[in-house]
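Exercise 7b. Backbone tokens:
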């Protein structure tokens, strides 16, 4: 399909392979792949999508996304330009754009002697995705540091939400039909050496327990209330189970790894097999944590 009124043609790629933009390294193409340089251009792409009745998806590091082999219809907006990568310290707070790498932000905060974000060590992705999904784990979540979040909605309007206005929950997206563009994080002055030590300890533990260097999208399933999804999958005897190039990690059963030639169909077949086995053995229905496009 041709679109003749697209803004900023120089910022657009057509039929762009999305496997290049996800940590899974899997998936088909984006019909329209847009890279706005700033919020004004982002608004124009949003308005074009709305007026053309095209679906809009947003991608940062693609660390929580499985793209279907058939690709994605509509517009995929990639927040990787400098206008979304601002990191600014204001006393004990940090303002970070949605496109800022979360590991980079953690390292900067530790280097500045600001505590709170070190609990997110080892989590990939960007600030936008981390805020949208309330990223974190047993050490803490990003919502504990949120002071405010700035978004643009599907009508191109800018909103700023204070922490008390946001109903954060476990892997709960509080910003449906909105695109996060910036977050302000309230941290605390701490000893830089102690923060660095803690960050390294967390990363060391995660390296022991999780396949951090493998091609994956992190934890595939949410933890059911009162249970650990990885433990249920392991107890069901599914570690090492394979479909094509996709395999359940031997290190952490809630990770599915692309061994090099996996397709989205392979991953989805494995997901269905895991859900079926866990339901039969434990009467617990697992819910996906990753997004499937």
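Sequence design result:
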């Amino acid at each position: 399909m041709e679109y003749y009124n697209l803004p900023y043609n120089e910022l657009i790629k057509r039929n762009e392979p999305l496997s290049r933009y996800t940590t899974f390294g899997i998936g088909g193409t984006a019909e329209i792949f847009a890279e706005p340089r700033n919020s004004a251009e982002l608004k124009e792409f949003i308005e074009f999508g709305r007026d053309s009745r095209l679906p809009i998806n947003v991608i940062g590091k693609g660390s929580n996304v499985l793209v279907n082999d058939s690709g994605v219809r509509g517009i995929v907006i990639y927040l990787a330009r400098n206008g979304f990568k601002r990191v600014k310290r204001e006393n004990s707070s940090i303002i970070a754009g949605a496109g800022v790498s979360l590991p980079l932000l953690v390292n900067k905060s530790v280097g500045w002697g600001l505590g709170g974000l070190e609990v997110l060590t080892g989590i990939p992705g960007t600030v936008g995705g981390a805020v949208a999904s309330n990223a974190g784990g047993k050490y803490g979540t990003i919502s504990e540091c949120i002071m405010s979040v700035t978004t643009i909605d599907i009508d191109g309007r800018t909103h700023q939400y204070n922490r008390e206005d946001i109903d954060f929950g476990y892997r709960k997206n509080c910003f449906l039909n909105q695109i996060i563009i910036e977050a302000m994080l309230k941290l605390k002055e701490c000893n830089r050496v102690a923060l660095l030590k803690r960050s390294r300890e967390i990363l060391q533990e995660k390296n022991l327990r999780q396949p951090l260097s493998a091609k994956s999208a992190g934890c595939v399933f949410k933890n059911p209330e009162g249970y650990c999804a990885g433990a249920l999958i392991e107890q069901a005897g599914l570690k090492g189970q394979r479909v094509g190039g996709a395999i359940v990690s031997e290190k952490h059963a809630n990770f599915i790894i692309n061994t090099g030639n996996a397709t989205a169909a392979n991953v989805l077949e494995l997901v269905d097999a895991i859900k079926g086995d866990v339901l039969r053995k434990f009467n617990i229905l697992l819910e996906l944590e990753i997004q499937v496009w």
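Instructor comment: The chain is about 25% helix and 25% strand. The two ends are 20 Å apart (CA to CA).
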